[in-house]
Amino acid sequence: MPSSTNPSAALVSPTPARRSDSNVPSKILTMDVSNYSAAKMVGNGCGIKSPMLDAGGKSWRIIYYPNGKRAGTTESISLYLRLDTAAAGDDDEDVEVLYKFILPGPDAGIRFMSGEVVSTFNRLRQNAHGFERFITRDDLEKSGCVRNDYFNVRCDVTVLSTACRRTPSTVTEEPSLATALPSKPQHPTPSSVAAAEDSGRPGKPCLVSAPPSGQLHEPSVTAVPAASGLQGSSLLREQAPGHPREQQQSVADVLQTFLPKDLGHLLATKEGADVDFEVGGMVFAAHRCVLAARSPVFKDDFFGPTKEENTSYIRINDMNPETFQALLHYIYTDSLPEMNDQEVGAVVHHLLSAADRFSLKGLKSTMENRLCTRVCVTNALATLVLAEQHQCHELKNSCFRFIACPENDREVMATDDVEHLAKSCPSIVRELITKILDSREVASNGKRSLRK
């Protein structure tokens, strides 16, 4: 969360933004809020929009929601950048923009700053992007940004590219959210909120109101391409002469190839997200129904009889952001993100722990198999501790076999991890010593047999 005690601290956006080319000009847009006490009296979902502002040959507006844009964000302010719908130009044009929001302090320095975000704006599809929970009103008022009932909002905008579409469009103006941290979140009610229509007249800021949350757009549906040859309820494979015709593939099996891609897109766009996770200073938006469908732990947390009263914002203190990001990727796509060998080595132990914690059996098995192939002198004892703590029997046996090998045992037992093993899993030390002695005895008997 942006902090008044650390003016230079930036919010970390859920996905890293691409840096703008030094040759691409940036434009600073500003919005003056001159009657803050009156502004904060408006209701949740009601925003104040700036006059039209120019950047990159396009017209924009900053929209400020004093009491949050959605239900569940009433204690925060929401800030959005919107491509102006009343300005001249090609309506069906994708405009890729790098932007960030800044709240200057009383000394003209930066008091709060969002992370840089790259988003695509389109008047007919998605014309607004921003931060649903940029900062709490309490933090804003304590920061000194508001002086004499006035404060200023700044948005740094860089138009990276524009491209005209040539395909039919469906109007969806739901903003994607790079979510900052709330202090006391409520239950958010996802809704497709269309940006308000403009009067087309520049001038004083005016109020815009979001429609009721019940006005939801129909979800988009990914159709199976006609070329796939699907007909009826099954897909017949090509068969050699005499091959039994009973070999059929269910449509459900075929459609499984589309599901990971579609859910991965849902995770990336964050459309309809209704829960935020704070992990190591980063915020990740997700969907409770998807998490609950994949993990019985999440299901119990969100919908079980012992669920917390408020599950729209969850802080996880004992996990790093890289591990949680990979965990979410697996939950949505049933696969891990692309990682090189070094990245895998850095995260595999943590992912095994996370998989066991959230009862993701498939991920746990995958991580256990990977760790079995990575046992070496420097990590054997630490991996053995991990295997014992998470009941990974195959991994435990792999560690035993490696450590008990006469070529490895002395070198492994000379590492600093021996003390860690003794403290973490004292019961396993006797078992390990027995394995080593048995292995040495077998090796010794083999040598005697060779002498005879």
What is the CATH domain class of the largest domain? Mainly Beta
- Structural class by secondary-structure content: alpha+beta
Averaged pLDDT: 74
Overall geometric form: elongated
DSSP strand count: 17
| CATH topology grouping of the largest domain | Apoptosis, Tumor Necrosis Factor Receptor Associated Protein 2, Chain A
CATH superfamily grouping of the largest domain = Apoptosis, Tumor Necrosis Factor Receptor Associated Protein 2, Chain A
**Total DSSP helices:** 14
- Which architecture of the largest domain per CATH? Sandwich
Q: What summary fits the major beta sheet?
A: 7 strands, mixed
Beta-strand proportion: 15-25%
Distance between the termini: 75 Å
Q: Return the domain count.
A: 3
Q: Helical residue percent?
A: 25-40%
Radius of gyration from the alpha-carbon trace, in angstroms: 28 Å
Low-confidence stretches: 1-22, 168-252
InterPro entries: BACK_BPM_SPOP, BPM1-6, BTB/POZ_dom, MATH/TRAF_dom, SKP1/BTB/POZ_sf, TRAF-like
Domain MATH: 26-157
Domain BTB: 273-340
Pfam families: BACK_BPM_SPOP (PF24570), BTB (PF00651), MATH_2 (PF22486)
